[in-house]
Amino acid sequence: MAGDLTDPATLIQAHIAKATALLINQPDSLRTRQMVEVARELNPGVHVVALAGSEEEADLLSQEMGIRTCLPEAALARALGDQVIEQLKAPTADRTH
What we know:
Blueprint: H1 8-13, E1 21-24, H2 29-42, E2 47-51, H3 55-65, E3 68-70, H4 72-89
């Protein structure tokens, strides 16, 4: 699904009314605020997790919007760590270097 998530029509097409969660994968806090406001108009109970551009923005979004936030560096580090763990779990013959 592609489109502007600040446009209610896009979220309606994405079935936001039935969604349990909304993941916002861009760090622009103004756009994030707009997306959250639109999403909550259509689904007041939707849980939101969003990238934030800085720790200050993360704190503000969490406090003011009541959403969970993540910094891009932390998300990248977590994903890399998960890949290493999965690689270590693989049989020795399946490991790539």
